[in-house]
């Protein structure tokens, strides 16, 4: 059984940084693309960032480009999301997902339970 476990969320102030982690267990991690998505209250889940299995390709939503960085350590079965210059509009539950490299939710087969990020103004 594949499991994805996110951690690192919390309550921060505008301009602060957070680093989210997602550990994958139960299957081979190194040949799976990974993504981060987020869902704010009353809104649909949206794409944040994705990374290819090798880490050589990364993609970002325009709203987080130049502030967030996705990375992965295949030796640790872990994908990260470094979030800098956080804004109140970044407040959401953040989910990691494993599947095919894409911005589409439907391309990902495995999902974590999410970690809450709250940015106060």
Describe it.
This protein is mainly beta. The protein has strands at 3-7, 10-13, 18-25, 33-39, 46-51, 58-60, 68-73, 78-83, 92-99, 108-111, 115-120. Strands 2, 4, 5, 6, 9, 10 and 11 form a 7-stranded mixed β-sheet that branches. The termini are far apart. The model has no long low-confidence stretch (mean pLDDT 96).
List keywords for this structure.
single chain, 121 residues, mainly beta, 7-stranded mixed β-sheet, 4-stranded antiparallel β-sheet, 52% strand
Q: What would a concise description of this structure say?
A:
This protein is 0% helix and 52% strand. With 121 residues, it is an all-beta fold. A hairpin with a 6-residue loop joins β4 and β5 (46-51).
Strand tally is 11
Mean pLDDT across the residues is 96
Class from secondary-structure proportions: mainly beta
Assembly context of the chains: single chain
Query: What separation lies between the terminal Cα atoms?
Result: 40 Å
Low-confidence stretches: none
Largest sheet: 7 strands, mixed
What spatial form do the alpha-carbon principal axes imply?
Answer: globular
Helical percentage = under 10%
* CA-based gyration radius: 13 Å
What order do the helices and strands follow?
A: EEEEEEEEEEE
* Strand composition percent: over 45%
Count the helices. How many? 0
């Amino acid at each position: 059984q594949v499991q994805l476990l996110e951690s690192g969320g919390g309550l921060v102030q505008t301009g602060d940084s957070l680093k989210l982690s997602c550990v994958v267990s139960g299957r081979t991690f190194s040949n799976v693309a990974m993504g981060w998505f987020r869902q704010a209250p009353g809104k649909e889940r949206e794409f944040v960032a994705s990374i290819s299995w090798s880490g050589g390709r990364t993609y970002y939503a325009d709203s987080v480009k130049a502030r967030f960085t996705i990375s992965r350590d295949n030796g640790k079965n872990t994908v990260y999301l470094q979030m800098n210059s956080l804004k109140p509009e970044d407040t959401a539950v953040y989910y990691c997902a494993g599947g095919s490299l894409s911005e589409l939710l439907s391309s990902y087969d495995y999902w974590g339970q999410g970690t809450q990020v709250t940015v106060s103004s």
